[in-house]
């Protein structure tokens, strides 16, 4: 009896030491266990990602599109929520049902990974079907508050956890980059954003035990929160450092592997076997990246499980269980066979990519007519200077004035550029064109659109004209715009885009020859409109959206693309145009990627797209 008691006490102490061990020690033991059972772990994560990415996501995409067609809803945005509630209540109901289904599937994915990893740690006493049954029972027994907490928790930890665990079902729950930039440019908002991130990190770690308590032990969310708060008291830095150590190690591993492949290809580019080695290196890069995704996901789950119920001794023996030899062999044969089948497709794609056939050569569009601050936005001197760099288009903004004319101006108020707290809609064209605005160390007058357009035509510079809306707009704004400028726009092949669905739809309906793009700040679902193109903010833009646009013979312009990493990704997913504040930099990157690039540079471009996040989206 004493011996049995001492043995149990030893097990409990061992488990508690695992839970409280220092981050490096935890990582060392977790790492040893992962590589001992790598076949099982890779199979679990890889197959789960395949099911979600290639079965669930297409189904939900199709259902949403079918619902929109059935209810005659052209698009979904914050601008038409009120209209949908009044005119299309069935569409709203259908979207809620789809959202609930997505939330359930997200819960299933996380629970299946959590239970599956727990099962492997315990020596696989259950089959995968058994784990699936447990997951389904967990979902069936979950209360609505459990689901609400689950989604809220992921929103809170997303700025941090998405580096280690992500899902395509949540990849649209992002704050667009232009909003982040706006907040960071404002000191007060930047401080609040910093406070939010600190608070999110603290809450995320203090509540780290909630999910296993709900999914494994079936606690109510209220009780799970209370227990997690108790168990993480005094251990915040322990868990925080475990996550940081994992991030650092993964980042270093990726940097070393990618660096070695790139430097090796630089040497091979000087030989006669450059294409062969590039194909092999690209294949290795894809396989290794997928392996690292699986590794990071498993270690992240182990961090979460390390917080789970320190009073239960069973998980303490997770490193002493040995998976049966037959099971290990079968699992590894399965994963190797699967990778072999996928390899043929990857090699075929790699050959296409390395021959430059998988990357688009997008149009370059200078945002607000400037390049890297070479003038005052939306002014004639800046546009003339920028036009010498030969962008395909200069993007610029127009607004209707008090006397129903059109002036070139992005902001609704003159305070930022002119230091005048006056609205554009409250001033006449004559008053506005007399105002001097200042930016980037330059000064210029606010131009009328008529003068701006004539100057652009004189310099053979095509325009992408954004029609802004404001307080002075008339109901016949589209007709006024076309009546004054339509013939010149068509003759000189200018293009128009706007955030207003009404303006876009009326221009296309009444003037079908006019090229009009509809601006979308968020990729929620693919719209069904008359637009020739979609101008999409790049944060949520993906290849699925672009493929759908291509099937419907519509163009996609991405904004704002200001660095080479974003540019490479946009070329890789196939955008037709990029709106940029750094025209020269982007033009050079396009040239480097398309004008006989080295295979090493193509590998480098591909690396920018192979991040932990994009691999699981």
Task: Give an overview in words.
This protein is α/β, with parallel strands linked by helices and 617 residues long. It is 61% helix and 8% strand. The chain is built from 25 helices and eleven strands. The strands form two sheets. The chain has an eight-stranded parallel β-barrel with strand order 1-2-6-7-8-9-10-11, surrounded by six helices. A two-stranded antiparallel sheet has the order 4-5. Strand 9, helix 21 and strand 10 form a beta-alpha-beta unit. The two termini are 54 Å apart. Mean pLDDT is 83; it is low at 1-20, 309-323 and 612-617.
Write the layout of secondary structure elements.
Elements: H1 2-20, H2 23-36, H3 38-70, H4 81-87, H5 89-121, H6 128-141, H7 144-161, H8 177-185, H9 187-206, H10 210-215, H11 221-231, H12 236-268, H13 274-305, H14 325-354, E1 363-366, H15 380-387, E2 393-400, E3 406-408, H16 415-418, H17 429-432, E4 436-439, E5 442-445, H18 449-458, E6 463-467, H19 477-491, E7 495-498, H20 501-510, E8 516-520, E9 533-537, H21 543-551, E10 555-559, H22 564-573, E11 577-580, H23 583-594, H24 599-609, H25 612-615
Parallel strand pairs: 1-2, 1-11, 2-6, 6-7, 7-8, 8-9, 9-10, 10-11
Antiparallel strand pairs: 2-3, 4-5
Helix pairs in contact: 2-12, 2-13, 3-5, 3-13, 3-14, 5-6, 5-13, 7-9, 12-13, 12-24, 13-14, 13-24, 15-18, 19-20, 22-23, 22-24
Transmembrane segments: 41-70, 90-115, 136-160, 188-215, 236-261, 273-305, 333-354
Protein name: Glycerophosphoryl diester phosphodiesterase membrane domain-containing protein
Pfam family, one: GDPD
């Amino acid at each position: 009896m004493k011996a049995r008691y001492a043995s149990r006490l030893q097990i409990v102490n061992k488990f508690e030491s695992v839970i409280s061990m220092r981050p490096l020690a935890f990582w060392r033991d977790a790492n040893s266990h992962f590589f001992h059972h790598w076949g099982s772990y890779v199979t679990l994560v890889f197959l789960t990602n395949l099911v979600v990415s290639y079965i669930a996501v297409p189904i939900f995409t199709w259902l949403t599109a079918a619902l929109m067609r059935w209810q005659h809803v052209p698009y979904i945005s914050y601008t038409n929520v009120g209209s949908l509630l009044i005119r299309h209540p069935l569409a709203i109901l259908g979207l809620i049902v789809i959202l609930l289904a997505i939330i359930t599937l997200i819960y299933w994915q996380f629970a299946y990974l959590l239970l599956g990893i727990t099962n492997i740690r315990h020596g696989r006493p259950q089959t995968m079907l058994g784990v699936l049954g447990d997951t389904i029972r967990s979902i069936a027994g979950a209360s609505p508050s459990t689901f609400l907490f689950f989604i809220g928790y992921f929103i809170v930890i997303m700025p941090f956890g998405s580096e280690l665990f992500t899902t395509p079902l949540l990849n649209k729950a992002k704050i667009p980059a232009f909003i982040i930039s706006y907040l960071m440019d404002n000191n007060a908002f930047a401080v609040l954003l910093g406070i939010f991130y600190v608070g999110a990190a603290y809450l995320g770690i203090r509540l780290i035990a909630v999910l296993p308590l709900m999914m494994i032990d079936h606690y109510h969310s209220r009780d799970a929160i209370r227990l997690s708060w108790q168990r993480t008291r005094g251990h915040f830095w322990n868990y925080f450092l475990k996550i940081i150590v994992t991030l650092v190690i993964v980042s270093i591993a990726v940097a070393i592997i990618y660096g070695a492949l790139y430097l090796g290809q630089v040497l091979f580019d000087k030989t006669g076997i450059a294409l062969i080695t590039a194909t092999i290196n690209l294949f290795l890069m894809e396989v290794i990246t997928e392996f690292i995704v699986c590794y990071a996901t498993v270690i992240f789950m182990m961090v979460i499980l390390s917080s789970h119920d320190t009073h239960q001794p069973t998980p303490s023996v997770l490193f002493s269980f040995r998976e049966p030899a037959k099971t290990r062999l079968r699992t590894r044969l399965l994963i190797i066979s699967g990778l072999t089948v996928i390899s043929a497709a990857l090699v075929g794609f790699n050959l296409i990519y390395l021959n430059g056939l998988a990357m688009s050569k997008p149009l370059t569009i200078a945002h607000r007519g400037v390049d890297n601050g070479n003038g005052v936005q939306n002014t004639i001197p800046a546009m003339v200077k920028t036009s010498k760099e030969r962008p395909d288009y200069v993007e610029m903004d127009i607004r209707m004035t008090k006397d129903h004319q059109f002036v070139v101006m992005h902001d609704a108020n003159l305070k930022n550029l002119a230091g005048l707290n006056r609205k554009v809609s409250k001033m006449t064209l004559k008053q506005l064109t007399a105002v001097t605005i200042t930016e980037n160390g330059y000064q210029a007058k606010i131009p009328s659109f008529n003068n701006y357009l004539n100057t652009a035509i004189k310099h053979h510079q095509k325009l992408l004209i954004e029609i802004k809306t404001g307080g002075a707009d008339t109901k016949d704004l589209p007709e006024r715009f076309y009546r004054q400028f339509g013939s010149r726009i068509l003759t000189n092949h200018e293009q128009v885009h706007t955030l207003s669905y009404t303006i876009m739809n009326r221009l296309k309906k009444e003037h079908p020859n006019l090229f009009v793009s509809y601006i979308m700040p968020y990729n929620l679902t693919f719209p069904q409109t008359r637009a020739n193109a979609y101008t999409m903010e790049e944060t949520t833009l993906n290849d699925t959206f672009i493929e759908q646009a291509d099937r419907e013979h519509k163009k996609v312009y991405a904004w704002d693309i200001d660095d080479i990493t974003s540019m490479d990704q946009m070329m890789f997913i196939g955008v037709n145009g990029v709106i940029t504040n750094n025209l020269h930099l982007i033009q050079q990157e396009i040239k480097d990627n398309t004008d006989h690039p080295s295979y090493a540079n193509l590998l480098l471009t591909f690396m920018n797209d192979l991040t932990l996040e994009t691999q699981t989206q």
